[in-house]
Design a protein that fits this description.
Number of strands: 48
Low-confidence stretches: 1-17, 105-118
């Protein structure tokens, strides 16, 4: 349907109705609630008549209502719904309900009861909204633990998070863009601070186009009541049940706290966290390479420790000042430090066999002690100003600056099995600072009766200067000497200017949004090898990123929707660094200096239906087409003079071609009894990769799926038990496949002292020696060249106790910022 025909039909519908209307203003305390929903139902048959959302001032206006008897429901995520019965429309009439104050669900006395009455899922025109109170087993954990419960999201054994089967998505915190690595951002954000998660699969032009899988908007708890809020959360892990023969015991403990004070025009919040989250485990691998020149095969099976020590601490401060209803100021600072030590002590059994007669040519056994440390120090600040004009149009300005210092050495030591002899001792580190700037200006107004218009401009600057030093110990002198082929200087300078216009509106049973974003990017890439000439590479583009969504609500509360969005995914610097880095004994890692961004077109069509206040279902069919698909692939390694290195593979990030996915996601929230609440979701899709790499055609295709289930049983108002299962099927890659991965979890929750103290006992990665939980095999191969398979076995049967104590009953309104630039590089 052409757009002018669409608006013509809407206009005809408008003129056939009378002029009766219902108006009101929805608030939380003294603050207006934007995007609250007002839904009108027929009193006669309970059927849906129409629905609207509130504007920036919290106001709504339902127009052109026919004569009849109605009731109205006003709702917002995290708040109790208010119902207005016995609304009678007769003739031309305006009913003004005045100011409607919604009461936060968190201010009720019994948190468990509220959890049962709250929907886990709410569907909107462009997103699915999940209430975190439905996932009690995440308490005391991080935002990553929240995400792994959601139907469209899956997490594999490497901690890689994907949406609808693909990585690469934009993260927003309280609607603000970040540019960090998703696993790092979410791992540092306490689950206790997350109120809801929004999965925006077809984002509007208002948002950055980054992220081929769409947007994850993490909403932290907020409110608007005068008073103080203080909460302290403590986590402690029991000793490991399973023994993986790791050299050091694990440490799992943490503490995070929040204090906020709101008094009239001022809102001040402080937050801090400290966490140690170690994971034990092992790595079992087998690799062989084919030397087709000299006609032999080298095979090197391996086994040994692969554990991770994670240390994280941070501090945050925000202050909001609202001198009047038309102006508000916000200042925020954040500083943090994280350290990730990955230990791999692996025994290798190398053997070389003739391909002519099968005879064994030589053998060599050794121990590789590999420690990869990643450090990250972050400091950033932001300032925001918002002004609401008399006509309710809104101007918002925002500025953010970030400095991050990234680094950390990797040590690689090859020894005899008894450690009496050193074969090779290498050390590489880097000084890798990141400077990021973002400035943004947005203006929203309503020039038309059928919708609100938003326009805006954004500038983003990103500078990453990296000095990479690689040294090898001279076994004769004992001195460490520079290895020229691995030592380099790599500088990335990227500047982005963008402007957008967006229309959002609703009328009768239709909701619609359409927008266009124009983006100009300039990328300068400076490379300098230790003994090489400097090289400057430039890549620029000017592109349009359109988006559109429409949703229609039928009489039986069945909602149908259609959406389209064009996205881009820009690789971090390490995926573009063409100089090799020694990851461990068998792998060099390097990037592609000519790496192109991924461009994605996403189309989705779906429906959702609310069955009653506690049950709903949804289904979405989607198609995703990715140009310049980036994959991590392997190839045989050659030294600087072109001689094949038999026992080392090159792990390379590069564009492999085009990726396509056609999928279906389903979800349902329902109660089997008054005390037994269930939520289950699944995603099944066909993935196809077509392209060319290393002179070979890439043609991979397979159907794969994921399942997330959550079941909660309430024994009483203060005690509940929850079981979750996260299952990820086999997936194809450009060169092989990743095995299935699953993790069952069980948690017992008990509240004390009128819900001020909450204790959660968690049994994570249930296995009991029977299930092969929390392990994943990754396999790649190339005909007549190499084969590699590695099984990562991570710790199972972990028992953790979380305690959360709220000192005051006032609702938390902390709205902390987080890293936008440095965390992606980390």
């Amino acid at each position: 349907m052409k757009i002018h025909n669409f608006f013509l039909i809407i206009s005809l519908l408008l003129v056939t109705n009378v002029n009766s209307q219902i108006t009101a203003k929805v608030v939380d305390g003294n603050y207006p609630l934007e995007y609250a929903t007002a839904t009108l139902f027929s009193s006669k048959n309970k059927g849906l008549i129409t629905g609207v959302v509130t504007d920036v001032s919290g106001k709504f206006n339902i127009k052109n209502i026919k004569n009849g008897n109605y009731y109205l429901e006003v709702s917002f995520i995290g708040f109790n719904t208010r119902t207005f019965n016995d609304i009678v429309i007769k003739g031309d009439k305006t009913i003004d309900l005045g100011v409607i104050s919604l009461l936060s669900a968190e201010n009720q006395l019994n948190d468990v009861v509220i959890q049962n009455g709250t929907k886990a899922l709410t569907n909107k025109i462009d997103r699915q909204v999940y209430d975190t109170k439905a996932f009690q087993n995440t308490k005391g954990g991080s935002a990553s633990d929240v995400l792994r419960n959601l139907p469209s999201i899956s997490m594999d054994g490497q901690g890689q998070i994907s949406v609808r089967g693909t990585i690469g998505f934009k993260v927003l915190l309280n609607g603000k863009p970040t540019q960090g690595d998703i696993s790092t951002i979410l791992g540092q954000l306490p689950a206790n601070a997350v109120e809801r998660v929004e999965i925006v699969t077809a984002p509007s032009a208002k948002y950055d186009p980054d992220g081929k899988a769409g947007i994850l908007n993490i909403i932290t708890k907020k409110g608007s009541l005068n008073g103080e809020f203080a909460q302290l959360n403590i986590k402690g892990g029991f000793p490991s049940i399973q023994d993986y023969n790791n050299q050091d015991p694990v440490h799992r403990y943490g503490i995070d706290g929040t204090y906020s004070l709101k008094k009239n025009k001022w809102d001040i919040a402080l937050g801090g966290s400290y966490s140690r989250s170690d994971i034990t485990g092992r790595r079992e691998g087998d690799v062989f390479t084919i030397n087709d020149v000299e006609n032999y095969k080298t095979q090197f099976p391996s086994d040994g420790e692969r554990s991770t020590d994670l240390l994280d601490y941070s501090g945050r401060f925000t202050v909001d000042f609202t001198p009047n209803k038309n102006n508000s100021f916000a200042l925020a600072f954040y500083g943090g430090k994280r350290k990730n030590d990955r230990t791999a002590n692996i025994v290798y059994h190398n053997s070389t066999t003739s391909l002519t007669d099968g005879s064994e040519l030589r053998t060599f056994d050794y121990l590789n002690e590999n420690l990869r440390t990643r450090d990250g120090d972050f400091a950033l600040g932001s300032f925001d100003y918002t002004h609401i004009f008399k006509n309710q149009s809104k101007l918002t300005s925002s500025f953010l600056y970030e400095y991050s210092l990234l680094g950390g050495p990797t040590t690689n030591l090859n020894l005899s099995l008894d450690k009496s002899k050193v074969y090779q001792d290498e050390y590489n580190t880097n000084d890798n600072p990141v400077y990021g700037t973002r400035a943004q200006l947005d203006y929203s107004f309503k020039p038309f009766t059928f919708g609100k218009v938003e326009i805006g401009y954004q500038y983003r600057g990103f500078l990453n200067n990296g000095d990479f030093i690689y040294e090898r110990r001279n076994l004769t002198t004992g001195d460490f000497e520079i290895v020229p082929e691995f030592t380099s200087v790599v500088n990335l300078d990227r500047k982005i200017h963008s402007a957008y216009t967006q229309l959002n509106g609703s009328t009768n049973k239709w909701e619609y949004a359409a927008g266009l974003r124009l983006e100009s990017m300039k990328r300068d890439f400076y490379l300098k090898g230790y003994d090489q000439q400097a090289e400057n590479l430039a890549y620029d583009y000017v592109k349009l990123f359109p988006s559109a969504s429409v949703q229609y609500t039928m009489e039986n509360d069945l909602k149908l929707k259609l959406g389209y969005s064009k996205r881009v995914d820009r690789a971090p610097t390490y995926q573009m660094n063409p100089f090799k880095e020694r990851e461990h004994s068998e792998t060099f890692e390097q990037g592609d200096k000519n790496l192109l961004p991924e461009f994605t077109d996403l189309v989705e069509v779906g429906f959702n239906k609310k069955i009653d206040k506690t049950a709903s279902v949804f289904a979405n069919v989607y198609f995703r087409n990715v140009q310049n698909l980036i994959n991590r692939v392997n190839t045989r390694s050659y030294d600087k003079v072109g001689v094949l290195n038999d026992t080392i593979l090159d792990r390379i990030y590069t564009n492999v071609g085009r990726g396509r996915a056609l999928g279906l996601e389903l979800g349902a929230n329902f109660k089997l009894t008054d005390k037994w609440n269930n939520f289950i979701g699944g995603n099944v899709y066909n993935q196809q990769i077509d392209g060319l790499f290393d002179g070979r055609i890439v043609d991979s295709k397979a159907t794969q799926f994921s399942i997330n289930a959550n079941s909660t049983y309430d024994f009483s108002k203060t005690t509940s038990l929850q079981f979750t299962l996260n299952y990820l099927s086999e997936r194809v890659t450009a060169q092989g496949e990743d095995s299935r991965f699953y993790s069952p979890n069980l948690s017992l929750r008990k509240t004390f002292f009128d819900n001020q103290l909450v204790a959660t006992l968690q049994w994570q990665n249930i296995d009991m020696g029977l299930l092969n939980s929390n392990e994943q095999r990754i396999t790649t191969y190339s005909p007549n060249a190499f084969y590699t398979t590695t099984n990562y076995v991570y710790e199972v049967d972990m028992v953790i106790l979380n305690l959360s104590y709220t000192f005051t009953k006032t609702k938390n309104k902390s709205k902390f910022i987080d890293s936008e630039f440095g965390k992606k590089e980390f």
